[in-house]
Amino acid sequence: MEHDESIGAVVVGLPPVPASVTVLATVTAAELPAAVARLRPRLGIVDLDAGRDAGIVAISALADQIPDVPVLASSAGIAHATVLDAVRAGAAGYAAGADPHTIAELVDAVVEGRPAFSPGLAELVLDAVADPATTAAPPLSPRESDVLLLVVEGLTARQIAGRLVLSPRTVENHVQRLLRKFDVPGRGALVRYAIEHGLA
């Protein structure tokens, strides 16, 4: 994909960064949400080799607080539990290894709103989603719970935005994240899932 302009990103650790990305700041995991709020990049990149648990927490915090900025998680190798934890925390994609061409493609996909994974990882994530033992009612943030309850009540994104003092776009971002988290195709399925799992 040709780039007319580079993609601004806030980075945690030392992930491989393709030429299409301009690093606006390199921060610690704890600093990520504040840095993204300040700089408003198009992407966050979290190197989980720099601290797995702190990185997962940072991904979750960013996905909750600023859901319109996607996160690409990365690591040198593939640890299945780490990949799944990153996705459940809200990462939109996962890059394993340091192939610059592959990472550039993953960055493009994530920025365009598509999930993106290094070869072999998409199947891992889909298998885990298909296994109810590993995905029974993943935990929700307080904001996600608020949005989910109002979706179940039948409110529109605009009505939910008014109730929670958010922008409609932010509400839609939360809804899309809930759809991905529960692997359901739309709002009707989301409502059924919430009721069946005792979330509403």
From TrEMBL:
<feature type="domain" description="HTH luxR-type">
    <location>
        <begin position="133"/>
        <end position="198"/>
    </location>
</feature>
<dbReference type="GO" id="GO:0003677">
    <property type="term" value="F:DNA binding"/>
</dbReference>
<dbReference type="InterPro" id="IPR016032">
    <property type="entry name" value="Sig_transdc_resp-reg_C-effctor"/>
</dbReference>
<dbReference type="Pfam" id="PF00196">
    <property type="entry name" value="GerE"/>
</dbReference>
<keyword id="KW-0804">Transcription</keyword>
<dbReference type="GO" id="GO:0006355">
    <property type="term" value="P:regulation of DNA-templated transcription"/>
</dbReference>
<dbReference type="InterPro" id="IPR000792">
    <property type="entry name" value="Tscrpt_reg_LuxR_C"/>
</dbReference>
<keyword id="KW-0805">Transcription regulation</keyword>
<dbReference type="InterPro" id="IPR011006">
    <property type="entry name" value="CheY-like_superfamily"/>
</dbReference>
<keyword id="KW-0238">DNA-binding</keyword>
<dbReference type="InterPro" id="IPR036388">
    <property type="entry name" value="WH-like_DNA-bd_sf"/>
</dbReference>
<protein>
    <submittedName>
        <fullName>DNA-binding NarL/FixJ family response regulator</fullName>
    </submittedName>
</protein>
